[in-house]
């Protein structure tokens, strides 16, 4: 048992070993019926009922809205308020209320891949389709939240692998720079805190297909220069690493080899922060590894962000408890001194055939008990500082 003592609050964290989740595609769509969803949810420790949703709703509506600027140096984030869960053509009343409830919970920033080139591209591949980006920006501003947007990933025809999850082909660099300029101009006037290039690029067989560290560093350089030219105060974020949890994952070109090569090629000159995904407390030291790499390459003052964190506090599938969510933030902010934790996921949904049941909302956007656990984490940790840690 680990006891975290914090000014004005104490949090008891129970240590355990976690099972590793494989990386999943944030672009996948739900593939199960409502009846299948509810049947599978009965196997979990979630409490789905109208009474529970009403209880959570009434509690949260008594709280104040969040303010992105009032973050005490750390961001309480959430990933998933984007397509396919969030659509401008969806049930606006439900989606708008979800944004509001997240803000009242204490979420001050959202992570979205809506600005990826292939998402804003029209039929010709040009960046003209900003309907969903606009919707998300306006909803976040309405409820006092900032954004971390994902950049890169062109339409397949402009990449080296003919796949949208790949680096841009150098012969299309002019188009890439235009995409960056147009997209950044579109974000002007909104509270966009971070621009993260790619997703889990240290898993090259999945998220950086047929692409190299050199290509990644070059794209980061173009992103950094485009932001500087735009005059906006957006920080660049590199890697969203997940295979680097192990010395062996990713083969000869992925994992820690990818990170090491990127640093040798000078990515520290263009990245303002480094990000990791889904570390497994007690089984790996991914945050510590990333901090060590930053320190060794002159980035000791640059923040480490956890921009996707699954609820890995269970000992097996379906064993997660809503209150386990509190541990994620305590470990991220206090044990590893990270400056941002994005909870994965906003809404229950199927990804690659598996139900991710630990969303903050059910599939009908009804609030779940996890939202209250999130609010508990905010209340216990926001503005608090670690005094000491005892085992």
Kindly describe this structure.
This protein has helices spanning 34-41, 50-60, 92-105, 117-120, 131-142, 173-187, 213-230, 256-264, 286-296, 325-335, 369-381, and strands spanning 2-6, 9-13, 75-79, 109-112, 146-151, 192-197, 235-241, 273-277, 304-310, 340-344, 349-351, 354-356, 386-390. It is an alpha/beta fold and 391 residues long. It has an eight-stranded parallel beta barrel, surrounded by four helices. Helix 6 crosses helix 7 and helix 7 crosses helix 8 (256-264). It is globular, with a radius of gyration of 20 Å. The protein starts with a strand and ends with a strand. Residues 1-30 have low confidence and may be disordered.
Summarize the structure.
The protein is an alpha/beta fold and 391 residues long. Helix content is 32%, strand content 17%. It has helices at residues 34-41, 50-60, 92-105, 117-120, 131-142, 173-187, 213-230, 256-264, 286-296, 325-335, 369-381; strands spanning 2-6, 9-13, 75-79, 109-112, 146-151, 192-197, 235-241, 273-277, 304-310, 340-344, 349-351, 354-356, 386-390.
